[in-house]
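To assess whether the prediction recovers the assembly geometry, we first specified each molecular entity separately, as shown.
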Amino acid sequence: MDAVLNKDVNLVPDKFVNTYRHWMENVRDWNISRQLLWGQQIPAYYYGSGKTDFVISETKQEALEKAKTQTNNPDLTLQDLKQDSDALDTWFSSWLWPMSVFNGILEPNNPEINYYYPTNDLVTAPEILFFWVARMMIAGHEYRGEKPFTNVYLTGIVRDKQRRKMSKSLGNSPDPIKLIHEYGADGVRVGMLLSSPAGNDLMFDIDLCKQGSGFINKIWNSFKLVKSWEVDNSIDQPKSCAIAIEWYKAKFQQTLLEIEDHFSKYRMSDALMSTYKLIWDDYCSWFLEMVKPSFGEAIDEKTYKEVIAILEDNLKILHPFVPFISEEIWQQLGDRSKEEALIISKWPEAVSIDSTIISEFSFASEVISGIRNIRKSKNISFKDQISLQVLNNENTSNTFNDVIMKLGNVSKLEAVNHQVEGSLSYRVKSNEYFIPIEGAIDVEAEKNKIEEELKYTEGFLKSVQKKLSNERFVGNAPEAVVAVEKAKQADAEAKIQMLRASLAGLE
Amino acid sequence: MSASQKYDSQKVEDKWYNYWMEQGYFHSEVDERTPYTIVIPPPNVTGVLHMGHMLNNTIQDVLIRRARLKGFNACWVPGTDHASIATEAKVVAKLKEEGINKNDLSREEFLEHAWDWTHKHGGIILEQLKKLGASCDWERTKFTMDEDMSASVIKVFVDLYEKGLIYRGYRMVNWDPEAKTTLSDEEVIYQEKQGNLYYLTYKIENSEETVTIATTRPETILGDTAICINPNDDRFSHLKGKKAIVPLANRAIPIIEDNYVDVEFGTGCLKVTPAHDINDKEIGERHNLEVIDIFNDDATLNEFGLHYQGKDRFVARKEIVKELESLGILIKTETHINKIGTSERTGAVIEPKLSDQWFLKMKELAQRLWMRCLIKM
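The predicted structure of the complete assembly is given in tokenized form:
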């Protein structure tokens, strides 16, 4: 039974398989008549008052012929037939939907039904698993000998922040059209998908739409940046740009694999998240910074063309999530014929990549972050060039040296084989990096700052020592209080030592 | 829109949706490519877009757009559902506002109003889906009551009847007194609600003796047609073959024996009301009991309700409890948790009702599905 079930239909997530099977095994007769007028009227025609005095037929005319035979009364007329007044349950029409939309019931061999059926994916809510999904399965097998769809993706229920189901009466359901006006359709689509794992409920919060439209603005602003660049075909491509392009292409391929994997498992939120991070972090925050020409300068033509090609690939994977902005940018990138619209372009192809460059960049990005941290803590303006020395214990390649120099505004990057005295330093793994202070900071100001601190700390140490040399205090105070004073003394001594070393480095 | 401007989503979205539509990118025809098909879960034809639709259709559009980019012949079929109960209720309410009673209209007249309503409000939701960017093949838009769609339904009904899978039967069904229609088992939602268990005494015919039963629905005593005891319960064996008198109605009803009775529940004696309880109906069939239906279609009491005729079932319950109490027939009331069935559509408490209805043998159909799958494997 399980094997049959698994082979027949793929429920996503599979936690619904058991409820589905339970229903299939325990299903009872389905009452399909409704005392309503709006629907298909039951094609039962009564010719008498007895409970079994009826015939079933597609038309009244056919019914008359059947009734005549059944009653052996050739004199029956259409006036003698009274059609059942009930209508059929709406689900008795919905259960045929995947077949009837292709006219597969009336003309079971028409080319459309043979081509489009079985359908691929059904996306629906778990509440109608029995009302609809299971019944479509049954009808599909009965009339096509085949399941109506290969995969059933069961979405969660949209709830509010307090986990209440959204409803008109609670007034907790935002008007979707207003949301679209405010945040854009693309923004709302991203917002809806940001937190919707299959089968789990979506806790909707307006902030999700804000985040969605924030993403759209990020995409737009990054496009504006690229468009603002002046292109010069007389400039040679800098090495940093060549490396940046090679790296981003590899990163893109790596992410593409991830996205394909998420899609194959119907992890829509994860597929979006991978795309989101690729665009926001890797493309906007790193890649564009790496290739960006310096202020007032132009970009070389080779790099620019590559950037546009990369942007085009980005737009292709963005398109399913944010169809509008992706098409807008795509069409602004060139004169596109109607055959060249993004909506019908070609999904990027997967190619094998060397992941070395990705791990190399990952290391380099930490080196850059280290420089940025020091600039921040020491108030070194980004405009001021620094030099960087590395004790390369990790034996890292120098592939990204040009990128590090560009993004760190480093004038000189060189390897050393011993620690550099009198410099600011940080580590990435076991590599040590040194930024010589000279030129980087205002030595006099720094010296004054340290001397002042030294003076204060020495005064503090004296007062603690005074206390500890007082025998009455040490003899009478609780042990814990004395311990605290001793710790203060040790801390102050350590700090003084450090400050003196820093001062010596500045001399 | 120039790249130097602030992004104007509304302008951009209208522009490209129109362009996509004009160029026919959403439309699919049979060709040599591999198809990728999605059929939309058809929303209610007169409904408006809610957040559930937004999530559901965003996902479908992501899937279909990706399939299109991957070179499949992508086809997303949109459409709407006639939503029998919901739409009919809306039309009835609208007619009522205009002072028109549904029952005063012929079938044709009512259907005309319903079609008018459908044409007026129908399709709004599909227009809203376009705002979301849904790339449906709008040339294929279907409605479950399109002529060919209805013809398909009727053809299937006839076919299943001829296969012996559809039958007409007199059975206990779920009655929605608000929508005034039967519902399938799937359309009934069970909820636990606090109610009372009422202990009532019935006189034994031609004797001073009484018997006490416990019931959650005292108003249904007017439909009682037997008292039932367990044949193995010595406490009541002396009542065998005697008759009890239904309070208020003063009808004599037989005391019967059936193993169905749980000696532990209530007093161990059961009132049997075959018209209003599925289990009582089964006992009734085993013992050839009379069936007395005390309700009208709107769950008010009918002529069997005596002086409660015309009153709603819940009003009648309260009043009957008072009367029984004043007569000394109600001797005890306990609180009790009931599982109450309610209508998925209207929320009304479902009334079990015996009625002639059409049924489809789902078990047989499900088995045929398993068999087909097994053969294929």
